[in-house]
């Protein structure tokens, strides 16, 4: 799959980092293999050797530039046409607040959680919230802070400075 260069933030010989093409959440990034592999076991040794340091570098830049309260890094998906890829989902304080205001995502409360006076967020539920509300919802929650385009520019500068 060809990605619009406007979304690409950083590239190495084996990996390409881009802003998620359809998510409205500024800073939701995707790190994809540049080779048509669908499994880590299919990747060349050089790509695997590069991966650990690259994951850490992406996290370092995102945390420094975007200051999320949480950063979820994960691998999902097996859609045809997409190579092996990882998701970097920044959870800002305003995203977590929107999650808690939305009663459709109250599974933890069924178990008597969160404890009174404490916010307990389940990562899987918050990820589902981000996917549904910022990816699939035709009217996503209001963005607070910089836009996706502004975040792309900020992150590009962060990668160049390392």
Question: What would a concise description of this structure say?
Answer:
This protein has 162 residues and is of the alpha+beta class. Helix content is 36%, strand content 16%.
Description:
This protein has helices at 45-66, 93-101, 123-136, 148-160; strands spanning 8-11, 15-19, 29-33, 70-74, 85-91. By secondary structure, it is an alpha+beta fold. It has a single domain (5-160), classed as HIT family, subunit A. A five-stranded antiparallel β-sheet has the order 1-2-3-5-4, sandwiched between helices. It is globular. The model has no long low-confidence stretch (mean pLDDT 89).
Topology:
Elements (H helix, E strand, L loop, with lengths): L7 E4 L3 E5 L9 E5 L11 H22 L3 E5 L10 E7 L1 H9 L21 H14 L11 H13 L2
Antiparallel strand pairs: 1-2, 2-3, 3-5, 4-5
Helix pairs in contact: 1-4
What is the CATH architecture annotation?
2-Layer Sandwich
Number of spatially distinct domains: 1
Question: Can you identify the CATH superfamily?
Answer: HIT-like
Rg from alpha-carbon coordinates: 17 Å
Tell me about the largest β-sheet: 5 strands, antiparallel
Report the top-level CATH class: Alpha Beta
Alpha carbon gap, first and last residue: 28 Å
Strand order, largest beta sheet: 1-2-3-5-4
List its salient traits.
alpha+beta; 36% helix; 162 residues; 5 strands
